[in-house]
Amino acid sequence: SSNSATNFSSKIIWYQGEAGTLKINANGETLSTQTIVKGQLVNQPADPTAPDGYEFGGWYYDEGYTKPVTFPLYSQGVPIYAKITKPEPNLPSDWLAWDSSSNSYYVSKGTSTLPANLVIPETHNDGTNGLHDVTYIADGTSIFNGVFTQQPTLTSVILPGTLESIGNHAFYGCTGLVSINLSECNSLTSIGENAFVKCAITNIIIPDNVTSIGSGAFSSCSSLTSIKLPRGLTTISSRLFNMCGHLSSINIPEGVTTIDTEAFKYCSALTSIIIPSSVVKIRGGVFQSCTNLQSITFADTSTWYRVDNFSNWNSMTGGTQTDVSNATQNATWLVSTTGYYDYYWYKK
């Protein structure tokens, strides 16, 4: 799409117009605090924080961004608007290919140099197949040949609203990638295995329409401190956050039924976690070497069993019924530091 304002641009800034302390807010973000009296000049506030990869384009009196504000201005109780826009797509065309089976384009490995701040387009026209959506990033067959594997100069990426899937190993080893913007990805349903291994992201919000995140997708993201998981997720896959040493808290969504092996291995900043009532299976080694994890709370403490082998866990049979009402005791059971795995857990 063109460099048009997105839904992020509806940030309304109200000047209160009365004597006292004036707080200028944008969607809950305090941008400026000034002491004024009615009719006093108001100085220009700090620029609002644009979503990752987006650009702040100035203050306007109208939502169409045709009447720019000149500062300072008199406090008069009128709103002004912050224009926030998405940069133009800049993915080189040789990184796009045609898929006749889906009648759409997809992102595949090219040879042209990539911009540091990458914007993948919603649509493409190769001159032969016409204008169609870009719907997925192709799978890589190994960690060494994901579409964007080990692109060290890549620092940010904005993914399009037409995207339905992010392939296996897509951004593996992009050690300079600090920003991944999925805010427009309302069609995205799956993120492939090892998709963002070793990226430098500190936080990420995954849209609720995503139902599948592959094993190891965020493994070794050592700067990651927070992540919002989607409400449609049913499995926390194996090694999903393995070696995310700065991940200090996480909310497992209600609806998740299985937490697979080593999902939080070496997440040494975790101190507590809540297992939602929807979870019925926890595979061995999930919290291996989470050395500071002192509290594991089960929202539903009834009829939990622990077994010492995969076969019984997989079939959900046998084992010892165990009282999981004590969060501290649970941590001693589930945080494995000496053996590879201690127990597998399931709920009847």
Question: Short description, anyone?
Answer:
The chain is mainly beta and 348 residues long. The chain has helices spanning 310-315, 327-334, and strands spanning 11-14, 20-26, 29-36, 41-42, 55-60, 73-74, 79-85, 96-99, 104-107, 117-119, 123-125, 131-137, 156-158, 165-166, 179-181, 190-191, 203-205, 212-213, 226-228, 235-236, 258-259, 272-275, 281-282, 295-298, 304-307, 320-322, 344-347. Strands 8, 9, 11, 12, 14, 16 and 18 form a 7-stranded mixed sheet that branches. Strands 20-21-23-27-25-26 form a 6-stranded mixed sheet. The chain has a 3-stranded antiparallel sheet with strand order 1-7-5, with no helix packed on it.
Q: Total strand count, please?
A: 27
> Helix coverage percent of residues?
under 10%
- Using the alpha-carbon principal axes, give the shape: globular
If helices are DSSP runs of H or I spanning 4 or more residues, what is the number of helices?
Answer: 2
- What is Rg? 24 Å
N-to-C order of helices and strands: EEEEEEEEEEEEEEEEEEEEEEEEEHEHE
Catalogue the unreliable spans: 1-25
Q: Compute the separation of the termini in Å.
A: 50 Å
Largest sheet descriptor: 7 strands, mixed
The secondary-structure class comes to mainly beta
Mean pLDDT: 86
Q: Which range does the strand content fall in? A: 25-35%
